[in-house]
Amino acid sequence: MLRLAHLSDVHLGPLPDISYRELASKRITGYINWQRNRKANLHDHVIGLILDDIKAQAPDHIAVTGDLVNLALDAEVEFARQWLELVGPGDDVSVVPGNHDAYVPGALDKACRAWGDWMWGDGMDRPAHRGAFPYMRVRGNAALIGVSSARATAPFMASGYFGSTQARRLGRMLDEAKTKGLCRVIMIHHPPVRGAAPQHKRLFGIGRFKKVMEKHGAELVLHGHTHLPSLYWLDGRDGDVPVVGVAAAGQAVGGSKPAAQFNLIEIDGEPNAWTLNLQRRGLVADSDRIQHIVAQSLDAAERPQVQKLIASRSHAK
C-alpha cells in the first residue's frame, strides 16, 4: 500500500521587497491582489500546521500540485526551494508548477532550475525544464506522472495549457505504467474538467486531456488551482477516473474559500482492482489545529453516493 499526501496552492508569503522595475509587468495586478485579498487570507502559520500534520500522518510520498509562490519573483522562487527542503527530499516529494509559478515570461524556467530535485522523472538524463513534462516516477505500487499546465498569461488571466506534445508523452507513460502493473496517478495544476474553473482560469486543452483518458486510462488525477476540495469524474479506457482537488494549503479560516486542507490517499490492491481511499484533513471553524474532515472511497461503483456527499457538504457551506 502507498500512502500519498496531496497539497496545493501554497502561495508562500509574505511578499519580498519588490522594485518598480519588477512591477512594470503583469505583476502589478498580482501585487494589488495580494495587498487587498491574499495577504489577509493566506498565512504561513496555517501552512506550518498543514505541513506538521502531513508529517504526523507519515505518508510514503507527497504531491504538491503547483502555485508555491505568488508573483514568481526571484526571491520567492528561492524561498520556495528552501520550503521544499523542509517538506522533504526530492525522492519523497513530487512537484508540478502552477500559473503563479509561471507568472511572467521566463519565470517557469527559473522555477524548474530551482525546484529540479522535486521534478525530475526516473531515468531523466538532464535537469528539469519546462519541455521535460510530463515526468514519471515509480514509488511503491504507483506511477506518479507530473504534467505541467503552467504558462505565463496576460493580466487578469490565470489559464493553463495542455498541448499535443505533452498529450503524446503522457499517453506513452500511462501505457508503460499499465504494462508494469502500476496504479497511475496524474498530477496537474489546473483541473482538466469543463466548468471546474471560471473562463479566465480554465485549462486550454481539456478536450485533448479527455481523449488521453479515453484512449489510455488512469486511476487518479490530482489537481489544485480552484482552492476547493472537489471531486469530479472523467471517462477512462479502464473505467471512470476520479479527479480530486484540494483547498489551498495556506488558506485561513473565515475566507471566501474553504480553510486549508490536504488530501491523504491510500492506494492498495492490484492491477484492474485498485482500491483508492481518500481522507481530507484540514482546519475547521474556531480551531487552530488540523482535524479529520471526511473520508470516502474513490471507487467508481460508489460514485453516486460520493457526489451526493460532496453536494450536501458544499450546500452546508
- Indicate the structural class: alpha/beta
Quickly name the level 1 CATH class. Alpha Beta
Give the count of structural domains: 1
List SSEs in N-to-C order: EHHHEHEHEEEHEEHEEEEEEH
Largest sheet: 6 strands, mixed
User: Helix count, per DSSP?
Assistant: 8
What is the CATH architecture term? 4-Layer Sandwich
Total E-strand runs: 14
Kindly describe this structure.
This protein is an alpha/beta fold and 317 residues long. It has a single domain (2-316), classed as 4-Layer Sandwich (Purple Acid Phosphatase, chain A, domain 2). It has 8 helices and 14 strands. The strands form 3 sheets. The chain has a 6-stranded mixed β-sheet, with helices on one face. A 6-stranded mixed β-sheet has the order 4-5-7-9-11-10, sandwiched between helices. It is globular, with a radius of gyration of 18 Å. The model is unreliable at 305-317 (pLDDT under 50).
What's the layout of helices and strands?
Blueprint: E1 2-7, H1 20-23, H2 27-41, H3 44-57, E2 61-64, H4 74-87, E3 93-95, H5 107-114, E4 135-139, E5 142-146, E6 160-161, H6 164-179, E7 183-187, E8 203-204, H7 206-216, E9 220-222, E10 231-234, E11 241-244, E12 261-270, E13 273-282, E14 291-297, H8 303-316
Parallel strand pairs: 1-2, 2-3, 5-7, 6-8, 7-9, 9-11
Antiparallel strand pairs: 1-12, 4-5, 10-11, 12-13, 13-14
What's a concise summary of this model?
Helices cover 30% and strands 22% of the residues. The protein is an alpha/beta fold. Helix 4 (74-87) runs parallel beside helix 5 (107-114) and helix 6 packs parallel to helix 7 (206-216).
